[in-house]
Amino acid sequence: MYFNQKVVWITGASSGIGEALVFALAKQGAKLILSARNENTLQAVAKKANLSKENYLIIPFDLADTSLADSYVQQIIQKFNRIDILINNGGMSQRAEAIATTKATERNLFEINYFAQVALAKAVLSIMVKQQSGQITVVSSIAGKFGFYLRSTYSAAKHALHGYFESLRLEVEKNNIKVLMVCPGKIQTNISNNAILADGSKHAKMDESHVDAMTAEECAKKILSAIEKNKQEILIGRKEILTVYIKRFFPKMLYKILKKQSPY
Hints:
46% of the residues lie in helices and 15% in strands. With 264 residues, it is of the alpha/beta class. It has one domain (7-259): NAD(P)-binding Rossmann-like Domain (Rossmann fold). The strands form 2 sheets. Strands 3-2-1-4-5-6-9 form a 7-stranded parallel beta sheet, sandwiched between helices. Strands 7-8 form a two-stranded parallel ribbon. Helix 1 links the parallel strand 1 and strand 2. Helix 1 (16-27) packs across helix 8, helix 4 packs parallel to helix 5 and helix 9 (242-249) crosses helix 10 (251-259). The longest helix is centred in the middle third of the chain and has 29 residues, at 103-131.
């Protein structure tokens, strides 16, 4: 029971992979901090996970504004006295051609998918350095490994996460702090429903490629296994994760493959 009594902060905890992580960690006896925009939904997740009041904390906020990140950390410390693991899971996808995407939408996507992840990591780092222990898990995407139709800014933000957190990993290893990059492919979540269009409005429909994809529960299980094993990076999905290896060894072939794929 690696996660028993560990204090774990999960963003994007109201649905999808985040919700599945809550359920899996609750079964292992972790103390959980649940974050997303909707407090009522988070309370419902905590209730469904059978969490007792002393073992969880709800901190609702929008990833588009992490200006209060330090105060969130203080709330966690006041209740649990430590932070063992941060799982930066929350994010937002995109379904829009680059030429049509407004500057405001591009900045919003970067705020949520890059700057928020960095802000929360930096907020917990001072605590983890004092503890001389900690783990930061960042949910990127296979879109962080190569670009794809209608994902230009989303993909760029995910690429940026790898540059930042791979650098950070080298810097904080001396403090016994681990960094894991998670790259999911197609997972059965609401990510396509909540993806935004060029003007910032919602895509509001499930992409066909997500319908028969890996479940969020299976994805969460693989993430927790990778954390426990102190892995540095993990690809999660089915046959779509092979594209990462094709990109590495046969980049021209990948381009031909991607051109024939549906963006949905």
